[in-house]
Design goal:
Aldehyde Oxidoreductase, domain 4; globular; alpha+beta
Length: 758
């Protein structure tokens, strides 16, 4: 197990929170009993397959499905024409924002055009997957191949092929008058940027590029849909948000949300990539057409080519500082691609690019750019990793020019309570300075790095984290155990972290709470598992639920003892009055024995604002100058968790994010040929880190309590992926003297840089 330090800065002590109980779903997971969507087999089950475009950009002139329907064992074929009319329809998905239904539906099944290689065109339901695959090949599609573009700057050029003729750039609420691939131009500004740079003694400006990468979840997309004779639609699926999935499907199919129930099965990873719907509405259409449940799953190449990766990006960052190291101005120009449809992650990129530091003068321009790649989706702190890759290298270069230690330089300019970001929000109490101090005092930073071709790098990262709506309910059993029902898909152990917060509130043990994640008919609306929100927001709902249950238990005790509920004292799960004391379990038994009403509680919350998580990473690398191969020798991730509910899970998030970020830094990329076809759509060719590529990740948990949560929780799941590429790049520079401004820093690219420098 990796070395882990925990810096507890909060003063409160707890009985359950901060301990490391065995996770509630552990036995099912390690014995293979946990039910994933692929495990589901219903009577009369049909199997669905998708026909995908072989072209990056083409007009669909005709689709002939007649031969496919004649294949024995084929039950139904659907195209975009089977959707209801979605023209000019926009749906409000609540916290998920507004969505253009025509674009969402056209991403599930193409309408008029295919916009990327792998774009879904039609789907077949048949008696077996083999029959479905055979039938898909019988569908005849006539294409008019069009010019395509996959690099963000090329897509912005005046001569670029236009993906959507009716698209106009939205700049500050106004639409421009010419067709374009630039869907959105954002601009944020504070202070006076020109005066800021005029006052600078040192200015560094650089350009950076990043390639698209994929979340790389182990489980491919898979769903089962049953459109029943009573018009009710039931969907079992691998999703990060059952309610968001339900609403997307209902809106696309033109049915009420109450007509659709989504059952979230166990999920084999998501990292932001399993929020949008792909197969769910298509399986539903097939089920309605053939009168059977339909199961659909993607092959790995379909996951790469047909679902959302991160954006590729081009960034220009310019930062100025005084001789004493004080930052005076920062300017960023960020262009992120969003794939075939508008709506990428340029917003968070703009929010996060300068988020770690105090800039009196700053300006950020951001562009959401369409090109012929799959529509981009979130991947752990979407947009922030690219921005940090640029900003943190410029910060390092400034520190070097001023001959200031890189941690001291960051400490001098660190964001703190009262700092206003360029996009407007003012930070409450945050723990960035504490993270920098922890890194500075860490065994890793204090240990000298020796050896040839070796370098040490450091970088910071930030993710704002969200709140949003969460609901849960619970009932107290006669034996004193509590059955908890909540709606947050469990990706990283949140069943346990939510149960622990309820247990702490009630004064009982972690395993006296039995949690389960329910379907959309069985629990109140709960926003998706994403944005580092679950342990914070659903945990807050569990806390409120605990207070509700505690109040009811006091009322039951009052009836038993013949006193007022307000005279009963509750401490550590014990209820007392006038010398009488009952533990929670004893009181639960008395409730049943006395025939009193069962104790059933519920809570729903919708916290606003951000919980603001900062992290600092340190990496030691060794570079082979003859091959350009980078070996990561040692790695430490420091992060403010607010309060670590289950420290093992926090460590896991820090380690997992760091490993994914290392892969992003050194190897991972969507590689396109001259016809804009992805050439590495498999885990054999898309190079993700294995246990042989990374050291054990050391972690340091800092705890600066979040004032908006009763237990001080901040989200932790996304910040760990923000800093690694910049950390690795700074370490590579220290080892080689080469400033690597594009990702990935693969062996051929680094070898060329070293050879050119020499």
């Amino acid at each position: 197990m990796a070395h882990t330090e925990e810096l507890y800065l909060g003063k409160k002590s707890y009985n359950v929170i901060g301990t490391r109980p065995i996770r509630h779903d552990g036995a099912d997971k390690v014995t293979g009993k946990a039910v994933y969507t692929s495990d589901l087999h219903l009577p009369n089950l049909a199997h669905g397959k998708i026909l995908r475009s072989p072209h990056a950009h083409a007009r669909i002139k005709s689709i002939d499905v007649s031969e496919a329907l004649q294949v024995p064992g084929v039950f139904a074929v659907v195209t975009h024409d089977d959707f209801p009319d979605l023209e000019n329809k926009v749906a409000n998905l609540g916290e998920a924002g507004m969505v253009n239904l025509l674009e969402l539906g056209a991403n599930c099944l193409a309408k008029g055009k295919v916009l990327y290689k792998g774009h879904a065109v039609a789907a077949v339901a048949a008696a077996s997957t083999h029959v479905a695959e055979e039938a898909v090949l019988k569908i005849k599609v006539e294409y008019e191949v069009l010019p395509s573009v996959t690099w963000v700057l090329d897509a912005m050029a005046p001569t670029a092929p236009i993906l959507h003729e009716n698209l106009r750039t939205d700049f500050m609420g106004k639409k421009e008058d010419k067709p374009t691939n630039v869907a959105l131009h954002l601009q944020f500004e504070k202070g006076n940027i020109a005066e800021g740079f005029q006052s600078a003694d040192v200015i560094v400006e650089r350009e950076f590029k990043t390639a698209s990468v994929h979340q790389g979840y182990i489980e491919p997309h898979v769903t089962v849909a049953l459109w029943n004779e009573d018009s009710r639609l039931k969907i079992w699926t691998s999703t990060q948000g059952s309610f968001v999935c339900r609403q997307q499907v209902a809106e696309l199919l033109g049915i009420a949300v109450s007509q659709c129930v989504v059952v979230p099965c166990e999920i084999g990873g998501g990292f932001g990539g399993k929020i949008a719907v792909y197969l769910e509405p298509v399986a539903a259409l097939l089920s309605r057409k053939c009168g059977r449940p339909v199961k659909m799953s993607m092959q790995r190449n379909e996951v790469f080519e047909g679902t959302g990766p991160t954006p590729g990006s081009f960034m220009r960052v310019k930062i100025g500082a005084k001789k004493d190291g004080t930052l005076v101005a920062g300017e960023a120009w960020l262009a992120y691609d969003c794939g075939g449809f508008p709506g990428g992650v340029i917003g968070p990129g703009c929010m996060c690019v300068f988020s770690c530091y105090e800039f009196p003068n700053a300006k950020v321009d951001g562009f959401d750019v369409l090109n012929n790649k799959p529509h981009t989706q979130a991947y752990r702190a979407p947009g922030a990793t690219q921005a940090a890759f640029a900003c943190e290298q410029v910060i390092d270069e400034l520190a070097a020019k001023l001959n200031i230690d890189p941690i001291e330089f960051r400490l001098k300019n660190a964001a703190k309570e009262g700092t206003r970001r360029v996009d407007g929000p003012v930070y409450p109490r945050v723990g960035f300075i504490e993270c920098l101090e922890a890194a500075k005092n860490s065994p890793h930073w204090k240990t000298p790095l020796t050896g040839k071709n070796r370098g040490r790098g450091i970088a910071a990262g930030f993710w704002f984290n969200i709140g949003c709506a969460s609901s849960c309910s619970a009932s107290v059993n006669d034996d004193g155990r509590v059955t908890l029902v909540e709606g947050s898909t469990d990706i990283g152990g949140s069943r346990t972290s939510i149960a622990m917060q309820l247990a702490e509130t009630l004064g009982i043990g972690a395993h006296d709470v039995q949690p389960q994640v329910a379907d959309t008919d069985s629990v109140g609306y709960t926003f998706l598992t994403g944005g580092s929100r679950v342990t914070f927001a659903t945990g807050l709902a569990a806390y409120q639920l605990g207070l509700d249950l505690q109040g009811q238990m006091k009322q039951r005790a009052a009836e038993i003892w013949g006193c007022g509920a307000d005279t009963i004292k509750v401490e550590n799960g014990n209820y007392s009055h006038n010398g009488h004391t009952l533990s929670f379990k004893q009181l639960a038994a008395k409730v049943a024995e006395n025939g009193l009403p069962p104790v059933v509680g519920r809570a729903s919350v919708a916290p606003e604002g951000s919980t603001n998580a900062f992290g600092v990473h340190i990496a030691d690398v060794e570079v082979d100058p003859e091959t350009g191969k980078v070996t990561v020798l040692r790695y430490t991730s420091v992060q403010d968790a607010g309060k670590a509910i289950h420290p093992s899970y926090v460590e896991g998030q820090l380690q997992g994010g760091a490993v994914q970020g290392i892969g992003w830094a050194l190897n991972e990329e969507y590689f396109y040929d001259d016809k804009n076809q992805m050439r590495n759509a498999s885990f054999l060719d898309y190079r993700m880190p294995t246990c042989l590529d990374v050291p054990m990740i050391e972690t340091i948990i800092v705890e600066v309590p979040n004032p908006t949560h009763p237990y001080g929780v901040r989200g932790v799941g996304e910040t760990p992926i923000v800093a690694p590429p910049a950390t690795i790049a700074n370490a590579v520079h220290a080892a080689t003297g080469c400033r690597m401004t594009s990702l990935p820093i693969s062996p051929p690219v680094l070898w060329k840089a070293i050879s050119t420098k020499a």
